[in-house]
Amino acid sequence: MKYNPNEIEANWQQYWAENQTFAAENNSVTQGGAELSEAKPKYYVLDMFPYPSGAGLHVGHPLGYIASDIVARYKRHQGFNVLHPQGYDSFGLPAEQYAIQTGQHPDTTTKENIARYREQLDKIGFSFDWSREVRTSNADYYKHTQWIFIQLFNSWYNKNTDKAEDIASLVSLFETEGNANVNAVCDDNIVAFSASQWNAFSKEEQERILLQYRLTYLAETEVNWCPALGTVLANDEIVNGVSERGGHPVIRKKMTQWSMRISAYAERLLQGLDTIDWSESIKESQRNWIGKSVGASVTFNLKGHNDAIEVFTTRPDTIFGVTFMTLAPEHELVAKITTPEQKQAVENYIEATAKRSERERMADVKTISGVFTGAYAEHPFTKEPIPVWIGDYVLAGYGTGAVMAVPCGDERDYAFANFFKGQDGMQEIKNIFEGIDISEKAFDDKNTTIIANSDFLNGLNYKEATKKIIAELEAIGQGKGKTNYRLRDAVFSRQRYWGEPFPVYYVKGLPQMIEAKHLPIVLPEVEKYLPTEDGQPPLGNATDWAWNTTTNEVVSNDLIDNVTVFPLELNTMPGWAGSSWYWMRYMDAHNDTEFASAEALQYWENVDLYIGGSEHATGHLLYSRFWNKFLKDRGYAPTEEPFKKLINQGMILGMSAIVYRVSGTKKYVSKNLKSEYETEEIRVDVNFVNSSDEIDLEKLRNWIPEFKDAEFILENGKYIVGREVEKMSKRWYNVVNPDDICNEYGADTLRLYEMFLGPLEQAKPWNTAGITGVFGFLKKLWRLYFDDNGLIVTDNEPSKDSLKTLHKTIKKVADDIENFSFNTSVSQFMICVNELSTQNCHERAILEPLAIILSPYAPHIAEELWKQLGHEGSISKVPFPVFEAQHLVESDKEYPVSFNGKTRFTINLPLDLTPAQIEEIVMKDERTIIQLAGNQPKKVIIVPGKIINLVG
Hints:
By secondary structure, the chain is an alpha+beta fold. The protein has 6 domains: 8-29 and 39-136 and 576-622 and 632-648, HUPs (Rossmann fold); 156-269 and 504-538 and 545-573, no CATH class; 292-485, Alpha-Beta Complex (Isoleucyl-tRNA Synthetase, domain 2), CATH 3.90.740.10; 652-727, no CATH class; 748-887, Isoleucyl-tRNA Synthetase, Domain 1; 890-951, Ubiquitin-like (UB roll), CATH 3.10.20. The protein is built from 29 helices and 37 strands. The strands form 10 sheets. Strands 11, 12, 13, 14, 15, 16 and 17 form a 7-stranded mixed beta sheet that branches. Strands 26, 27, 28, 29, 30 and 31 form a 6-stranded mixed beta sheet that branches. The longest helix is centred in the first third of the chain and has 19 residues, at 106-124. It starts with a helix and ends with a strand.
């Protein structure tokens, strides 16, 4: 009976689908008034759900899914009720750009892409609970995203209770006390008012004030604007100053945008990292992004102006070393304070800076650039004039967008001061450190600092000087101690079509929330997916995009009267909106009335294991933790953190194929001859190349016109390509389609091979040539159960060696899965099958448990073996075999017998023999008698369990 993976896998995939084998139960939900009997412990394993691109999956994509599937299947064998769902992050810019290019509706292409993804995922045999599939672009999903947005709008952050609360409680405080004693996370420059003043304000004035406190709010914000795409981009959508999608220029621009007050959760986001099992690298990325620092807020008055510059500094002890100030080019004061003489230079600099992204400016530590504004600030204590510059190393969105520059104590300030040395507006560097030479570089070791040339701070160390300067700043009303965070509020508006519509309409320019019972507000049809001619977002093209407050429905724009019919929000939500809570929807995916029931949320709690890419460290993973904490505050989420354990899978790299074009010709020279020519590297389709690096020239000629009439200079009649390990990408033609692997070798081979490549968290190159070894292993496994005539499994007693092999494998595989060390499990399977083959093992007592152990890794062949062994139903929930240590205990020992230190033969003896018994047996052995040739040894050295040595 031959191993036929294609037939076996198709049959079992159909069986799983028809029987909903992997559907999880919400065990807390009552059925007919009684709890489900024999409730199992829960285990929730989740993959970061994919964006369904038109390209489909390549072999790098399933890596994390295979790992999570192994864990999910193993946990089912252990008796857990496993939730292992899948869905699609189906809103986003790529689908919209494709729609712009082709005129196809993004919904159409998204559904086509999803169908392709589903086909590929099913082919690999994942144990997903497809009954809970979610798509963020479906209205029955995003109506709950809209609901969460409304909850954020109707909440404020109370610093006293350290949590989000209903905005009604804030209004109550205003009505009875005003805002003088309100301790909230809110906008800067809040104007104080009394209760009587609040109650006298108009409704519009009250709403404007509340916008300064709400957790989602409208504000003028510096954004990354991409004119070509007509939308705002997140920092992670920009690479080297251009859009990741299309490579278009991006500029910094002020726009009125919806923002999320994630900064309210900065400390909790920081502290929560200590409670979760994530890699230190991801935690450190988030700590750096949150950027907690302790120092002081200092106010510098501006000479000749009523305004002042506020700075945050972690080194207030160095305030007497300030020689200039630097503002971000976007700082609101720049236009006010720039002198006429400097106006042109400043404007030119601002225009140039707008073309660089924040990330680019942060990363570029080598370029020094700036312009003097012509204005001067006043030192709080010496009253000396301090020149005010602008420089793009200061960012408007970080801190206050201003820096007090102390060149003697900061390397970047030092470089800036030296670069502009001698120019108007740049003072000499002051040294305020006792006994320190700053002629070559700045001194930034605060632990050994002794302050000098600083008036009342002279002779103090860092801690003493910091404490004293804060007290003095507070005494003169120009500063105070402060803890600051780098984390900025997240811009939540996108000028796109293909995204969640906001449940918002506008009355007198102020946002109003649509009642939850009228959700979803469904994305309208539009003729064009581009911004309107007057620069409005694509939803400005919609003809029916107004809200009737009487009938509570979306109506024609022609009916807008600003009395009962009002305009709807034209922006849409960003891609991270739907992905910031999706794991909760899986818990109760078909609930029409709420995003998930309290019972389902309480039962599943949060994700036990989350697998996904490290590139989401400061995007998705931060935003989802924020939304989870918010929903916990408001009584909806049961836990503070969404993901208990996180594993970042490494990347599977492509093995690119390179041909060498002789420069200026249509000749291509084989790899080992290229040193004789001046050549250019051209990447070609890796699928044309065999395991010996020989390219199929006929396929290459028929690929693209460039090679049709090309001349190929061969070596030994063959063209050998060069190889390069790099990211798997269509751009490099090094993508390997998993469908091709599954069709030729089977999904079980693909699954085992991807795990065998190396540790899950490391990057590793793909090499199709290596897959044949794994396929050979499965065929060898099959032969333990079958010969040409059928099943050869017996009910005979297994040998001790076979039991030892089996239990060694049980222990190794269980330990490896618990430790997420999947590659070493595959190695153990190979060792196990080799040993059992050598032992000629065909016993049911060995081969039945072996099929179960293998099932998480190669589920299709395991299911078939289980069925052929005479069992009904799926192997997937059969208890995992129990490791029995006694089978690994050695009862005898193969001793080397040495004569004068040289081994002459071996002898197998029980381990419980005494040295005297061992000596007696060895001395009577014929091989000993021959070696001694009638002589008696002078000494017999015996170490039980180790050595036997007879000395002449």
